Amino acid sequence: MGTVTAPWKQLLLNALESNSHLKHSSYFQLATIGSNGRPSNRSVVFRGFHENSDNILINTDTRTRKIEELKHCPFAEICWYFTDSWEQFRINGRIDIIDGSNPDSEKLKIREKSWFASSPRSRLQYLGHYPGLPHLSEEPQETSVDPSAGPVSEFCLLVLDPEQVDYYNLKTNLRLMFTSTQSQIGEKCWTSERINP
Amino acid sequence: MGTVTAPWKQLLLNALESNSHLKHSSYFQLATIGSNGRPSNRSVVFRGFHENSDNILINTDTRTRKIEELKHCPFAEICWYFTDSWEQFRINGRIDIIDGSNPDSEKLKIREKSWFASSPRSRLQYLGHYPGLPHLSEEPQETSVDPSAGPVSEFCLLVLDPEQVDYYNLKTNLRLMFTSTQSQIGEKCWTSERINP
């Protein structure tokens, strides 16, 4: 079965390439809807695409507020601004939460893969104190992880399935809106239109 | 009357100072709730604080989607990441929309001041084609503005009144949560707590 690459994905891969000298080029802002109905927004790290798809991977801790928020409302919008090439991607879609209790063994494999793809130092974060609770102790709970051990229960993978992408190049003033539709056989198809900035 | 500076404001002023060599340090991501109930997220430019207050100013076009969204739900969250000092500010609050039809003459003065504070080049943007509509023409509608002319009707000032600020320093791992309360005489008071990152 052939894979059709989403037309905005090549633009994003180009932006990642041309900004790769900047550590922060893999950071983007993820907006969700808070449990109080207000918007919520934070920086997270891009962990790549799932295989050849256009689904975006994000690692997080099951104890963070965004998990509770996404269980209430699975929709999110990424705002990703590339500071060197002056390009912005607004990626709207639905997020699938994959924690250790997921019944789908295929999904658990993707979660495990993302765990091992992250550095031992970032794996350590999941062994820390409960995020967002009052800070009571300076002592870290753990100082090392067994590099061969699988994901801890706090480790959670988020998979964002994009439905609409708003691309804007501030240098050329080009703005493109990419919209997906489902074909009759359930395949995702993308259309694009040039719109006013 | 004395003005009490919000405790997080000094941290933000320090971050602006230490990142001021980077043009993009004045850009942040503003999350709102879309008319379809989904999160919406885009980069906007920081236009300073309103006088000595902790209210954040943002210039925008009345024809952008965020105006419609904020009329439905006035709450927003800023996520502001400083790429050189590795500091993140998540600023949650309510937005007041000040367009040319505002009945409050004091607010209209603030709007006018923000118009004249912006560069002639950024003023030109408000004379362009309708943002987000299909791009039909390469020709810009206007190529110059009279520098002494007041704000055009498309020019809109947003004033965000912060209620909660989540500060996180990725270098030191310090995370502070600032929460505001209203005193009995209607003054805003801030409390802060160190929380786990």
Automatic annotation (TrEMBL), chains A, B:
Annotated keywords: Flavoprotein, FMN, Oxidoreductase
GO MF terms held by the record: FMN binding; pyridoxamine phosphate oxidase activity
InterPro entries per UniProt: Pyridox_Oxase, Pyridox_Oxase_Alr4036_FMN-bd, Split_barrel_FMN-bd
Domain of life from the UniProt record: Eukaryota
Keyword Flavoprotein: yes
Cofactor: FMN
Enzyme Commission numbers on file: 1.4.3.5
Keyword Cytoplasm: no
UniProt record, GO biological process: pyridoxine biosynthetic process
Any matching Pfam family: Pyridox_oxase_2
Pathway: Cofactor metabolism; pyridoxal 5'-phosphate salvage; pyridoxal 5'-phosphate from pyridoxine 5'-phosphate: step 1/1; Cofactor metabolism; pyridoxal 5'-phosphate salvage; pyridoxal 5'-phosphate from pyridoxamine 5'-phosphate: step 1/1
Span of domain Pyridoxamine 5'-phosphate oxidase Alr4036 family FMN-binding: 6-98
Full protein name: pyridoxal 5'-phosphate synthase
